[in-house]
């Protein structure tokens, strides 16, 4: 069974059903039923036209479900609309599905789940395993999301920026369960790049490829984090780096800079450095200046402080950090702790030679760490400095 083929056809088949006027939730259920039937039938009897086969079976599943509660006249109209056998139409509504699944009315978590289900072709169980939640919980989340967007017109313009944010959320989940979400996000970004000519879409794909190229070196065999400066650059995926740089250069040449292109440019500079010491930090600071102008994000300004510390020395980095509050604003006007602010302060104080302050801040950052791997890494940094201080 060619699972990749099934997943690539899922959004196309779903788009055709929705374009015919089918309710999105009912269409998605029908497509899932057709996929299950394909898994059962295709190994022994593969169709000559897989897409046409899925459309036919999904449409019939939809009709079967509709007959239970639709009026007789409407049922007869739907039967009359059933497409004749033969090759499926070449219309591809994948892009509209991206827009629908990333609709502003959905929460980020719901948009991610619906995108993976409707566009990615993953099962509810696979998505639940990837996000470490019970299958029933994920099924409810997807059902609510489908109900939310069922009344949205399929042909209305969508927001590319929202779609890109959803895909980046998927990418940053990495790997868990039996689904590699980082690889899945790259696949979906490639699909989106083929569907729309937009420099920021290309920028996101480039960013994903450049980050993914370093994946094998980010953790040690025992699961501990390996900082960028200590990673084995000889193990980085040069093919992904070359592809990412090529895509980025083509996007930047269009002179329509966006945040994902700027982030990709920073990642490309890291990838281009043969050693950590040869990193072009001055140019990285310049790109962070562009990114700050585009987003005014506290996280971007925090990362910029690190880059300033590398380019102009730790005291310059601490000065940049001092201008940034350790909390970021919310829509209510209140602040919430800025992730890794204390860890950055610890690193810069260590670079400046203030080991007691750095050790204290590393320990404090460990207590605030968002996950176990970061907590263990920061705890080891504090222990390392405390050992030096005692010696």
From TrEMBL:
UniProtKB keywords: Sigma factor, Transcription, Transcription regulation
Q: Which domain of life is it from?
A: Bacteria
Q: Does the keyword Metal-binding apply?
A: no
The chain positions of domain RNA polymerase sigma-70 region read 6-69
Domain RNA polymerase sigma factor 70 region 4 type residue range list: 98-148
From the UniProt record, list the coiled-coil ranges.
Answer: none
Could you state a single Gene Ontology molecular function term? DNA binding
What's one Pfam family the UniProt record gives for this protein? DUF6596
Any one GO biological process = DNA-templated transcription initiation
**InterPro entries for this protein:** DUF6596, RNA_pol_sigma70_r2, RNA_pol_sigma70_r4_t2, RNA_pol_sigma_r2, RNA_pol_sigma_r3/r4-like, WH-like_DNA-bd_sf
Task: Provide the DUF6596 domain boundaries.
Answer: 161-251
**What family does this chain come from, according to its entry?**
Belongs to the sigma-70 factor family. ECF subfamily.
Q: What is the protein name for this chain?
A: RNA polymerase subunit sigma-24
Species annotation? Streptomyces malaysiensis subsp. samsunensis
